[in-house]
Amino acid sequence: MRFADRAAPALLITLTLFVFVLLYGPLMVPIVSSFFTVSHGAVDWSQPTTSAYVALTQNDSVLSALWTTLIVGAGAVVLSVALGTGLALYYASPNAKGRNFLQFIIFLPFLMPPIITGLALLIFFRQVEFERSLLTIIIGHTVFVLALVYRTILTRLQSLSGSLVEASYDLGASSWQTFRLVLLPNLSSAMVGAAILAFALSFDETMITLLVTGTQSTLPVRLWAMMRLGFTPDINALVALVLLFTTVLCLVAVRYLMPASAVAGSDDN
Amino acid sequence: MSERAAPAGPGALAPWLATIAAYVVPLGFVLTPMALFLVYSFFSVDHGSIVFSPTIANYVRFFTDPVFLPIFWRTCLLCFTVALLCVLFAFPVAYFLTTLRGRSRYMLLVLLLVPLLMSYVIKIYAVRSILGGNGMLNRALLATGLIDKPSMLFVFNLNAVLLTLTVLLIPFAVLPIFLSLERIPKALRHASADLGATNAQTFWRVTVPLSLPGTLSAMSFVFVLAIGDFLTPQLVGGQSGFTFGRIIYSQFGTAFNWPFGAALSVILAAVVILAIRLGGRLESKHGGAK
């Protein structure tokens, strides 16, 4: 047993390291290959080059896909944060009717596989004869990210003390003033964090987009189409840039959403 | 929050307007499409156009056709294996995290979760570049002399799908297990040690049983994510790696049979609901550490 007690931590560290290699190792391959020429499966280490990145700036289909992705992301963020805030306020209000049912519907697209959400929307758009376009992608993304945005904002709302709102009313504020001057400032960091998360999810969303898109393709859909044809240096460059961007995005979101206690280092073990 | 006094709305109309406003989008863009696709599963297709008269032919076809059921079971088994592998990897990692203190614990947790928000398609692409016939894995195996010619065991088949999904979904398993391990009061472990249990005994008879709810919900989580995926099998599965998700997707593309695709999705939804309930049900049965 003494031996086991000493061997166990070493085993745990080894396994954790292995999982980190599994998670991050594969991502290194496209990043490294984006800077070096690869021929016949062997990397030429002697000459680092940025030619792949230069080629990327001249690739119109990638640039237009990037533009589409940004528009869709912005649309989905605005819609989902506005809706999510409204729904969270409604859920927390005493007049809410059937709040658990409403919450269930909001969570549905997040619980169900994206393929189901995507094709349900596809059938819906066809049935109401709504032409598939940029707007259908935005609607699809909004419905998908709404659950997370709503939940994030509701959690913050419920952590606020009820006496804040009561004090506001006691001081003669209207409900609009209470919302704007008391609730909104308290919710804003949760809203920003939720917006960043929503953007990151939308930026990456592929399965719903593939189903509800018309002729436009977002960056992941474009990448998906390119990857099916094989490996090229400019895909690797694009992959490297997207990875860098999403990592920065995540770290920013974490700063906004992580509870202060966790950052300060709550220590209970 | 819910106990707070009602805002003095302008008249009795305001609450109703708020209710209507709150329900418009969830009902219009979530529930209606979901209901519609359920209805579609009872339609049929004739010469490329949809026949709007109710029939259960799609479901009969799924249960009688020799093609679909085997793929369905194979996919379920595949996703169950993925869930099992993910938990086997995630448990030691989550446990290791709980042994860390303060800031480093959360930094490491964030590092484990960051890949979740990284582009899914890119991760598949990255793993594929390692798995290929001429990929890193094969070349590493060749270099070590374990094999003398490139192995085709994990190139464009179900094994490749299995490995890729496992690598992609491990972070999803870490979080629920970590949360359930973190909730176990340290007093329980101290009590166990005071009563003379060794560390190993405490681990197997206190920690593992109490973390079971998190482990099970991690499994159902991974299973649900794996079974709904059609991108991974499409990109690394090749000709033989056909999965249920791919078949559904093909009904909306090449096969162009939307009602049949809808019926298959209803079956997928049923499996997903079952998996979620199983994960949650067992969780409530074991109670979890309070």
From TrEMBL, chain B:
Family: Belongs to the binding-protein-dependent transport system permease family. CysTW subfamily.
Primary location recorded for the protein, binned into one broad class: membrane
Keyword Transmembrane: yes
UniProt cross-references to PANTHER family, sorted A to Z: INNER MEMBRANE ABC TRANSPORTER PERMEASE PROTEIN YDCU-RELATED (PTHR42929:SF1), INNER MEMBRANE ABC TRANSPORTER PERMEASE PROTEIN YDCU-RELATED-RELATED (PTHR42929)
Cellular compartments annotated: Cell membrane
Organism listed in the record: Kaistia defluvii
Topology in the lipid bilayer: Multi-pass membrane protein
Domain ABC transmembrane type-1 residue range list: 72-279
Regions crossing the membrane: 12-43, 71-97, 109-131, 151-179, 215-236, 256-276
Keyword Cell membrane among record annotations: yes
UniProt keyword list: Cell membrane, Membrane, Transmembrane, Transmembrane helix, Transport
Protein name stated in the entry: Spermidine/putrescine transport system permease protein
Cross-referenced InterPro entries: MetI-like, MetI-like_sf
